[in-house]
Queue: 2 jobs
Job 1
Amino acid sequence: MIRFAGDSGDGMQLTGSQFTTATADAGNDLATFPDFPAEIRAPAGTTYGVSGYQIHFAAHDVMTPGDTPDVLVAMNPAALKVNEDVLKPGGLLVVNTGAFTTNNLKKAGYETNPLEDGTLDRFRVLALDVTKMTLESVKHINLGAKDANRCKNMWTLGLMYWLFARERDQTIAWLKKKFEKRPELAEANIAALNAGHVYGENAELPHGINAYEVPAAKLTPGVYRNVSGNEATAWGLVAGAQLAGLEMVYGSYPITPASNLLHNLARLKHFGVTTFQAEDEIAAVTAAIGASFGGAIGVTGTSGPGVALKSEAIGLAVAAELPLVIVDVQRGGPSTGLPTKTEQSDLFQAVWGRNGDAPLAVLAAATPGDCFYMAIEAVRIAVQYMTPVMLLTDGYLANGAEPWLLPDLDSLQPFPVKHYDDPEGFHPFLRDEGTLARVWAVPGTPGLEHRIGGLEKHRDTGHISYDPHNHHLMTQVRQQKIAGIARDLARAKVDQGEDHGDMLVVGWGSTYGSISQAVRLLRSKGHQVSHLHLRNIWPLPRGLGELLRSFNSVLVPELNNGQLVKLLRAEYLVDAESLTRVTGQPFRIAALVEAVEERLQRSDK
Amino acid sequence: MSPNPPKKDYTRQDFTSDQEVRWCPGCGDYAILAAVQRTLPSLGASPENTVFISGIGCSSRFPYYMNTYGFHTIHGRAPAVATGLKLANPELDVWVITGDGDGLSIGGNHLLHVLRRNVDLQILLFNNQIYGLTKGQYSPTSQVGKVTPSSPLGSIDQPVIPTRVALGAGAKFVARAFDTSKQLTDALTAAKQHKGASFVEILQNCPVFNDGVFDLITDRKTGPAHQLWLEHGKPMRFGANGERGLRLSPTTLRLEAVTLGRDGVTEQDILVHDETNPALAWMLTELADVVALGVLYRQEGPVYNEDLSAQREAAKKRFGKPDLHALLRQGHTWTVS
């Protein structure tokens, strides 16, 4: 496992993602964790301006970016300061001594130079003046000092490629394309990349550092690509709209970490996708609702603060019973919170966060690739049940990448929508007896002119109704409609282990990898622990209550202050216990293992 | 999704829904509703291709009384809902119904952006200078000193001028009329014929909470002296016998109301209305004792939904048939065997 760390202007995210691609090419399974500051360019050299990119790769399947890196690349003192505690003792530390100036040391909060005071003795340190060697490698190209200096991330990447026997071709091709219009920059970056690689090959490195290879992992055969959650979500929405036979209107207001959903979809106009960068979050969702009223599938994407602003409009879609997909790429809260850090703290907001009794369906994707399938599912439920659907992902899924076995598109089940067109006995709240979905009659259809809105409607005419009994029945029918979605969902089943035992670990969302690895470890140690991961948060899948009760204990790890656990306790009256962590980072596997073992021991006594 | 062509000659009845109209007796909204129901058939509109979208407030009940498609949405957001609808189906004829509170207070932001984008919609803003549905609080267009339950000592808010907000937002069509004026039909017709966002402010009397606030302008006796009905290319004259008019003062660069035949003022001194002149339109919103009515400003401009359709078509031409299979394989892939 490697962590690249440097100033937010050092190009660490690019370095990390290039290494990811090369690693996937080498046939390794992998998981990544980009970790960058909220400021676009925080002051250089400061600890809060440090940007990191962690990649975990192995010959076995990898589910998380890992806990403690084996290799840390620190481009300046601040990057070292922030990350030195996470590097595994005995791990390899690569530092750029060129950036270890008195001034930078002071900015990072070092009183003495850690390279000289012995504090780094627990690591294998490779101290190189990357700055100087980079400038040397590009001096034959006429570049300004700033541009030349910027090549040092490629120099470092070249060294890492040598260290892990990665091919450079893909990165070279990428650089050529990226700097198509400035060939001198392409040349310089490639020169730096090659120089780093040559350095690794030729230099007499200190003892104990040798190039090593990680053999290929055993993955399911097929065609793979790397995919981030936001890419997969965008493509899943497009696939969903195609399966429904509908045009899509995506209304959005830029917000971290959901913005690149908008960017990804804006390029897909030829797929019948209209993107609308609205004036605010409310306009984004109401435009999507207007589009659904017009017969398209309206979608809006945002993060927690945006969902808060959209809540009243989502309630309108609940009352008017219009299809709508809301993607919430969760981030740390409350308020502006931690925009670039991951968290799972919008579950309550998704399930309950509206005025009145306003039920809707809530889904949660488990991995970056799973975002594709859950986005399709969100569209399906929205159009088949005429309801808003909230799809929860998070910053970690959105930006994290994993090798993804490309789906067989022909195997995806179409769910074509036919808008209602029969004037005979029509009123807008005619319902399907099975799903309880109301008819979807769209403007432009002769004979079906009707008015809908946020006021309560009479169940038999669709006209405004203040009748108390009618409101009671309409409230119930809205609730029954959402509850009924569970009928066409798979029954709850464990993802790993038996369907009874000492402990069931119940997770949801992006903790899938951590929990799965932890449970695998626990089971290999002989513990009777199983893992169940919920993708349907509301309604919950059938059979979940029985499953929960088949275990002696239930543990619910979440990256929030305990939300799913309360939902499960309320719904099933089970004594589920909570394990929470809100540091803006994924669970550490070791911490999960420790927490489970501690609880198992406690119950033995 | 293309709409069907109108099958027959529609009448006012075809645009009238079976719902009982529930505005207070004497409300100006009745006259506006009648004018809209009367005007639409004459413009070749068909009920199935016409949509009324409203926010919240007295005015926003309007869609329920139209036998067209309608959506009574949430407070202030009708322009955004209408924009989304127009994105999904640009062929529809979409009208936004809003009020001074809905459009200029809670929904001010959306009004600004729908106007500057120039989405092809008609926006009718009923201005009664009061919050009616919540029982009579002052609104953003209420005059300073207005005594209401929430301003017992008189409102100290400076009012906004709706037409000025529209012009400031970059609206390409700005008109004004009042509820009972026979020229309301002309304003509605011009609004519908204009391509792009058409903004029509309709002065509307609230007989319960703000009765008579526009009497000076709308009264049969006093009105003619205070109504300036604009016509493109015609001198801007008003008064019972057209004896008054507007002149541009070269010393103050302001419009001033003058009387023909007095102080040597002749027909030649009266300024001719040019509805394509934004500076003139702005000056017409600043008049003191006369209200400019009719079309203040009209100018062709790029229409949002048309430009969007053009981009969509261009993308289709450039990238061809959408191919999800190819999309997923774009960029780097590898095979595991």
Note: The longest helix of chain A spans residues 183-202.
Job 2
Amino acid sequence: MLDYIKQWLERRRAGQLGEHDRENLPTPKSAGDQLLSDCRLIVLDLETTGLNAARDEVIAIGAVAISGGVIHLDDQFDLILRRPELDISETVLIHGIGPEALTQGHETEDALLYLLEWMNGDPVLAYHSAFDQKFLEKTLKAQLGYTQPHLWIDVADLLPAFFPDAKTGGKRLDNWADFFGLEVSERHHAAADALATAELTLVALNKARKEGVKTLKELNDKLRYQRRLQNMHRF
Amino acid sequence: MASNQDSNRPQNTRAIMSFLREHAPFSSMDDAHLAHFAEHATLRFFADGDEVLSPDDGIVKRFYVVKQGRIRGERHNDKEDRTETTFEISRGECFPLAALIGERPTRTLHRADGDTFCLSIEQDAFITLFSESDPFRDFCLRGVSSLLDQVNQRIQSNAMASMGSSNSLDTPLERYALRNPIVCSPDLPVRKAVARMHENNVGSIIITDDNRHPIGIFTLRDLRTMIAEEKGPLDTPVRQVMTAEPCRLPADADAFEAAMLMAEHHFAHLCVVDDEQRLIGVVSERDLFALQRVDLVNLARTIGTATHLRTLVSLRSDVSRLVDAMLAHGADSGQVVKIITTLNDVTVRRVLELNLQKNDPGIPFTWLTFGSEGRQEQTLLTDQDNGILFRTPEGMTEEQVREKLLPFAQTVNKELAECGFTLCKGNIMASNPKLCLSNREWDDWFIRFIDASTPQNLVYSSIFLDMRAVFGPTEPLHELLEKVLTRIRKNALFQKMLAGNALQRKPPLTMFRNFRYLNEEKKHALDLKRQGLAPFVESVRVFALANGVETANTLERMEELAKKGVFDPKDANAWKEAYSLIQAIRMRAHQEMLSRGEELTNYIDPDDLNPLDRRILRESFRQAQRLQQKLEVTYQL
């Protein structure tokens, strides 16, 4: 898969347009009886120009794939989008992508088509996924008119569901990464954050297996039940 | 394989490459190969206690590197029906090499020890790297042993920087030995023998019998003595003035053995003989050291013939220089500690001789050394632990003997201190009336020590149970030791108390593991002697005493215990190696402190070590734990 990305990047550099079958973009899969131990899961992280989905834009996409309970590093996605028109001065300090890098990014439309094909309709996991979901769905709709909903799973829900007693000292990705002693190579780099999120997902999936949660549906149900429980506590 | 610019690689590929670069063998591999690894890797998670690889999994098809956490190897001990940890693999280390290369299942169950992430590549990527990267292939084929080689190479190269020679003392003697040595028959007149030496431009001639067995040696030094002391005319048959029974070694002995033999006896020449004791060559001190400037024999001789205390004191710095040189020439730590001990022995003997010349107390005695000197395990940092054993002459009381010996011992202790042997803080010195005893008194002393052993007594076990004679007749000590060993062998309770005492000092593994996670925090110091070496020395002592092993040297005790079947030979080798490596790291630290003009200590900060040494130190400490476990099982502690 990485070779495929390389070829694609080289084609893009040569100025060729990607060939995409716009009529037959993958259909998102729903939470069914797929076994967690062999289905493919996308773990994704976006860097954006800000926190407001109505106003701000996606500037980088990082994602890795988990298949068969293992992260495959030859199956990853790490792209900066070409958005020179965007003003990124406010957030440049956080994610470290300067204007120069953005102008060297890739044609948004092409990159998004490629992302959709690479995701292959598989379930998408992210930390505080509501944020990434809003931004990605907005961008896909605006650029490609693509509106099919993927199945999203929030890793921020997944972890407390399987480690209810963990004393993490907070709910942020950093808190969980520290709790499990992970080293994040470069925080706020989309791909590095995606890998850290995927590593936490592996830890949770290992625990899920031991608790007898076998299918995607069972996992989704457990998380839904967990959310309901939390909402009840809130009142 | 693509060799893209680093910046064109995805962030996660770059991150994995820089992780790999911190560890051997990846640190010596090309970027293109590291990229190939990173791009073909999978990342796997194993929770604490999960099986990672099992003998039941079939032929191994995957190569792993621990990214975070730890893997332990488990072996079931059928005899004792319990599970033992055979090895530990931590961050940056690889597994399973032997099984992967041998295309067979693993023989050891690999289990996650704590939550663990591993990077792995499949067999095809492994084969690509194996065939394209030389450092990777070397590493896989030689396994951990190549790491040990690297450590030894570095120890040598550090000291070598100032020496500029690579001759190793492990070289078999036959490579040094002069072939077709100059020989003559015993009846040849000295004049003709010397003429033959002159013709051949050599300093010695070997006197052989009809079967070519060496029966004597005659050297230029002997000629000098003969003329100076007017021992006879030059037509005296050489057999009357030769040194009979010359020292000999088999051809497969190494240069180190020859050097030690020469240093001990102050000989400059040795005969090299074949299996039937026939002369095949001569090796001289010059042959051994001409290229190396390692003047062990000369130094030993200078010490051994010094006429003033002042000279002895000034020679101590030469000993330190020599240690540097020995390390440079590939002597291992076991060899070097023996050399230091040999030179220390020569110094102690000479101090005693000089004092006897000045002020002989008139009573024969045996000078005993205890502790590390008794074990022949001294490094440059050493203090005095000595005592006197005497036989009370007829008509004298033991008190009367002490009155004569104690002032003598006091002077010797003081002069040894001037030579650099620090006075013993616990007053374990021959000038202490309690340690200047007759054979009968020593025997009583040991009876009390063994039968009425108190916790305080046990503290002294590391001193008094490692005992050796340095000067004077050795027979009285041998008799004493025999009685002591028999008593200990019969006294299971004492053995058990000794074993309990040996378990007091635990290898610093917990601390060592912690420091890995505490970068910015206060640094940790390790005491290589008390925490690293002592667990070996003390555990081995218990086994040695319980099994009638008389030698006090820890490495030799382990060898003996393996021969007696008390230790599994593989275990004994692992323990010997681990012990030697800690000793080597300690000695290198000493040399570095010395070169910086600092006071010698046994403390090191593991953060100052490179990752390889840290790994090896950790593995060595783990071996110490295994040895202690054996002690626990044997004595049911």
Note: The interface with chain B takes residues 2, 6, 62, 64, 69-74, 76, 78, 180-183, 185-186, 189, 191-192, 195, 198-199, 202-203, 205-207, 210 of chain A (CB under 8 Å).
